[in-house]
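Note to self: the last two entries modelled the partners one at a time, which told us nothing about the interface. This time every component goes in together.
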Amino acid sequence: MTTGARAATAGTASPRGLLIDRAWSRLGDAVAPLSNEAGRPLARTVKLILDPLVLRPVRHPEFAAGAVAAGHAEALADRIVEAGPVLAATAAWFLVLKKARRRAGITDGNPQDLYFQRCYELATVHGDPRLSPNAADRAGAVLAEVHDQDGPTVAGLRGFVTDPAHAPELARLLAEAWSDRPAPGGGATGPHPTAVGDFLDTCATKPDQALFDVLVARRVGARGAAELAGSGAARAHGLSDRDRPERPDLGESAAKQHLPKPFDRSIVERLFVPLTTAHRDALDDVPALVRQEIARSAGPWQLADEAGRVVLVLGRAAVAGLAGEVGCDAAVRLRGRWEREAYVRRALRMPSAVPESVRADVHGVREAYLRRLWVRTHGRELRRETVPADGLWDVLDGVLRSVILDQRDRLRSALERRAAG
Amino acid sequence: MRITRAAVVEVGAWPHPERAALLEGRGAVLAWDVLGDAAPAARVHDVDRAADWLWEAYGDEAAAGVLGDAAGITPAGAWPAGRALAQLAWLEAWWPASGAAGVPALDLSVLRAERAVATSAVEHLLDDEDATGRALAAVPADPVVAGLSDRLAALAEDYGVVLPAPVASRAEFALAAGGDAAGDGTGADGVTVHSGADPVDWALVPAGAVDAAADARWAVVRRGGATFLDVAVPGGPRPGVPLAARFGAVEVALDGTDGLGRRTGRTPVPATVLLLPPAARRLTVYAPGFAPPAAPDRDPDAPSRRAAIIAYARTRPDAPDATLTERLAGRR
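The predicted structure of the combined assembly is written out below.
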C-alpha cells in the first residue's frame, strides 16, 4: 500500500496534486471559471476535464493518481500547459452556458457535472466563444440537449404499463419469469470464498482484472445468491421486509420518498429512480426496459448481469467485517472507516442516543450498505455501465461513505426537528 | 511532531473531541487542537490517496516525511484554507455561547454560509466529493453580509443549489439570555431545605441548548406538606431543544422557561430524597434523544478543559485569524 508513496520520499517523485496545481497556476486568469477562489482547479475540473480529457491516465499510466516520477513530472505539466488554450476556451464556454442557463431560468442539476465536458467539446470544435459569432445559439442548443434529454420518461412508463393492450402480456411475462426461476445459485452452492477473499485483499491497492474475470466466469455472484433463499435471509441483507422475496407487482406509480426495500419494489418502482436521474438518455426505450426488468427481477440478486452480482457478493463479504471478524484487506479498510466515524461523531457533537424515528436507518449499517450497493449496481446495469476492476474499491468504499454521510444528515435533521418543537 | 506507524499512520497527538477542529480529507483525517496553535494531528489511513494533498497541510518536505518513513516531522507554516474549514466545523459543534461568561452567540446563517465557501476552497481534497453541494444545502438562509452573500450566491449558482431567501427575524439566534448565576437559582415558592449546583456536561446536550458556562441548580422545596425538586438551568441561544434532568433516581422534564430565560422543571419527590448521600446529590442535565443521561461527568479534566475553551472563545471575536463568523458573533 505504501510503495507508491515511499518512492516519493526518495526525491524522485512528486504528489500528482502538487504538479497539477503548479501547472494550472501557469494558465492564469483565463481558467478562473474552472478554478476556486484560491485559483486551484475545482475538484470537478480535475475529475471531469483534466483526468479523462487531458491527462488520460488510462493511456498514460505514468500520470495516474498518487506520486508521479520525476521523469514524467515535466511531461504532465507540459500536457496541461499545452491544453491551455482549449482550457481557456472551455472556461469561457462555461460562462456562456451559465449565462444562458440563468436566462432560461434553469435550476436543475449541478452545472459543473452537466456542462463541463460539453464545454470542453465546444472548445475543441469551435474554439473560443468570444470569437464565435453564434456562441449564444450553440449554448442554447447544448442546454436544450442536456435538459430536454431524450430517453424514456416516467410518463411514458406509466402509459405503457397501464395500457390495456400490454397488460396481459406483461402479467404473463412476470408469471413465467418467476415460475421458471432457476434454483438459487444455479445448481451450484456456495461461492468460492478463497477467490472472493483474494480479490478483496488486493482491490484497494493492486486491483486484478483477471481475478475479477475469474469470479464472473465461475458465476460466483449467482452462487452467492443462494444465501438469499432462506427464510428471513433477504431481510437480513436489507433487501426486503418479507421473510422470502415474492414476485413483484407490475405497479403503476411510485413515490421517491417512500420506496419499499429493493426486492419489495414493483417493476415500475424499480425503474422510477433511474428514469428521474440524469443520464436518462443512456436507457433503453420503455417497452424494452419493462420487459428486461421483469426478467431481471427473477434472476439471482434480482440482477441480470453476472458482473453486478459479483459486486454484491464482494460487498457483502467486505462489509461483514464491520461487526464480525475482518478477513481481508478491503474489510479492514471498511472497518477502519466505520471506527473513525465514532471519533468524528463525538468531535462534531452528533447525538450519542438515537431517536426512535431514525433508529432503523442508523443501526443496521450493513443492511443499508447492501441496499445502496444494490441500487447503484442496478442503475449501472440499466445504463449498461461496467465497473472496471480498478474502479471497484471506489465503489465499495464510496457506498459506505455515502451510507455514513446519510446517517449524519438523518441524525442532524432529527435533532433540528426536535429543536423546532 | 511524532509519527507512529501501524495500519494507520498517526501524526501527533489526537486532541480531545471537544477541542478538535476536524478536516476529513481523502485518505487522512486532520485535527487541529483549538487550544494549541500547532499544526494539525493526522490519521493517515490511505497513503496513496493522501499523497495527493498532504503537502498542502504540512509543506512538501514534512508531507514526504509522513508518507515515507520519518519518525517525526516539522510542519512548514500554517495552512489557512484547511484551518478555516476545520474551525467552522468546531464552531458549529462546540462554540460555548454563554450569557454568564460573556461569550456571544454565533449567527447560524453566517456560519453555514462561510462554511460552504470554505468547503469549496479545499473541495479537491475532501473525502466527500459532494461536500460543497452538501454544505450549500445546509445554509438556512442568505446571511445578508456584504462580501459573503455574493460569494455564496456565485457558489450556489455554480453548484446548482437554490438558496432560501433571507429571514426577516433573527429572534432564534438571539444572544444567550443573561443567566442569574449568583442567585439560588430556583426562585421557588416554599421552604428550600436543600440546594446545590452542578455543571452541565456538554456532551449530553446539543450545541447552544444551555448556557455553556452556567451551572444547573437544584433545590428541594417543602410546600404545603409535600416535597418537590426544582431544577433551573440558564438557556442558550437555541431554546427549542427538549431538556430533562436526573437527580439520583428522580427524573424531571425541564419544560418551563422563567423570566430570566432559564429552563425550569419541578416534580414531586419523596421526602427521602433528602437522605441521599452527598455523592449521589448530583444533577445531570441532558437532552432526551440526544444523549443518555450518563453518570455525572467523571472526566477529571472536563472542568479545566471547558474553562479553557470558554476563555479561548472570549478572545476569538477579536483574534487576527478569526473567521468572519467569529468576528460577527453578537454584533448583528
